[in-house]
Amino acid sequence: MGTIGQCNTQALKTMYGHHEELVSGVLQRTSRVLENLQSPTSFGEGLGELVFYIEREVLNHAKAEEETIYVLAKTQLALAAIIDEMIQEHEKISVLTRSLKEVPSGPKWIVYALELNSLFASHVTKENVVVLPALARDSSIDLAQLLHEMHGNFEERLSNFENKGQSKDNKGKAADEQVVDVRTIAPRSRHELIFSTFCELEPGESFVLVNDHDPKPLRYQFQAEFTESFSWDYLESGPSTWRVKIRRTN
What we know:
4-stranded mixed beta sheet; single chain; 250 residues; Translation Initiation Factor IF3; 67% helix; Four Helix Bundle (Hemerythrin (Met), subunit A); alpha+beta; 2 domains; 9 helices
């Protein structure tokens, strides 16, 4: 162990910058949801954006770290215990994210949201202050190469996330039934797609909405805009996937 070389110093700056971006991304999206607790539509849209960001960016980043940086870090005796602890924190973040999807807006949701933000911020600080500098000071470790491997793993995970198949969701459906899977669509674009799909239906036609959280706020918006012109039937209700059959009745 010794001083940090120039190449490792630059890699550290890149990692620190990405971590700051992730923490800020979660905090900003959480704040927007908290500002709209009393508005079902805005709350639902903000929640979808928050969960989408955590599942796409944070959790995929966490798994990529576990399979690259953490593997090497665990070979250092001084870091082994803290790495085990950080892997457990990744799982806790995943559990809290599922809780945000399942718990309605209110005091309990706020507790989960604040706990998740606090845990993630402290987790990143621990990695920035303890784990990464220890690796960077090891002259036998090329941190830039390790960063490259982690990014490759992350990009592969993003590709799998974006292209996860619909075979599970299509199982048991009629061949001609339309499916609108919004889980990998940016939250700000979801409602526009759902409403345009509904408006194109003829009376008696339907589609199946697939979402990563209970779309109850969307139902309230349907009730406000289409009154009795639709039916809403849950086909699957969590914990990770919701499927709703939406039919145009007249």
